[in-house]
Amino acid sequence: SSVDYFGQIAQENIFTHTWSLGVEEQFYLIFPFFLFFLLNFLKNKKVQSLFIILLILIGILSTYIYSEEVKLIFYSPFFRFWQFLVGCLTYVIFHNYKKKNVYISTCSFVILFFIVIFDYFENNLFTIISSTILTAIFILFYDIKNNLKFIFENKFFIFIGNISYSFYL
Length: 169
Description:
This protein is mainly α and 169 residues long. It has helices spanning 8-12, 19-41, 45-65, 70-75, 78-96, 102-118, 124-141, 149-152, 155-168.
């Protein structure tokens, strides 16, 4: 479409925001085949992890190389795939890595909060990379004994988080 996502005409279309569904659907259609390949052809867990990390680094590098093409990065699933892989890798490591650290998780959350609220980076690329990595660090090191548990495990925030995507749509 020649309409700018953030332009006035796009804001009048009630389906403009659903572009992210297309990216997610493509990921969920491609990822099972990728996972099948990974598990069947790369038997060693370390090799699998290194392969995923390599793909993440290729995704970050590609995003950097094409950082001037804002619309391409924003809409293309290729430039979002590495973020999904970071989420998947974080999930696997979280369930296998038992050492938690309240300070690391809290610091990553505070830094992420300030980056998002104050739009710290002028370059969107660094915002995307830093927010993805800081979120992964927060999840990896989160400890249930966190002093900020009243924020992170607040029933109202959990409820809002659970319905946020439906509410967004």
